[in-house]
Amino acid sequence: MDQKKAYGPHEAVTLGLELEIAGYNFYTRVAQAATDYRIRDLFQHLANSEKEHRRVIKEEIEPIFAPEWYREEDQEMMAQYLRKIEKQPVFPNPEKAEAIVRGADSAIKAIDIGILAEKQAVEYFLFLRDATRDGTGKQAFDRLRLEEVKHLKLLNDLKKDLLA
């Protein structure tokens, strides 16, 4: 028998926290292993931002999640979306981060991983913003989404500089 995993607001918040923790770990490892100061400085900045995002989720979003946090008609859509992203790890295992930075095309590879992760985070926080009814929750998710958009720009700008 095929049993579907149930997803709700708690799981959405948990996955958001896991995403931020994985981002922090990845960005920290890359920053520590980077020899180029531009990579080191940007990735340390991104790690600090991910830490702040965890705080926002824990202090501003987690306290408001409840069954009415999302519209009833969105429940199955949320479940499908969460099943999809749960199977797609955004960041590589932290132990692999240092190896990525040491490769020949290491900086670009690390930046590309960051770009992909930030795109997925933008999509995730947009989805959660739209799925929640609570105004405070909507604002917090949108603020996180806009932060991830800024991260995307920083990563893309650095990639252009390195390729120039």
Would you give an account of this structure?
The chain has 164 residues and is mainly α. It has a single domain (9-163), classed as Ferritin, core subunit, four-helix bundle (Ferritin). Helix content is 77%, strand content 0%. The longest helix is centred in the last third of the chain and has 29 residues, at 135-163. Mean pLDDT is 78; it is low at 1-7.
Beta-sheet strand percentage?
A: under 5%
Within CATH, the superfamily carries the name Ferritin, core subunit, four-helix bundle
Gyration radius, to the nearest Å?
A: 17 Å
Uncertain residue segments: 1-7
Kindly state the number of beta strands.
0
How many alpha or pi helices?
6
List the helices and strands and how they pair.
Layout: H1 9-33, H2 37-61, H3 75-86, H4 94-102, H5 106-131, H6 135-163
Question: What keyword list fits this structure?
Answer:
77% helix; elongated; single chain; mainly alpha
In short:
The protein is mainly α and about 160 residues long.
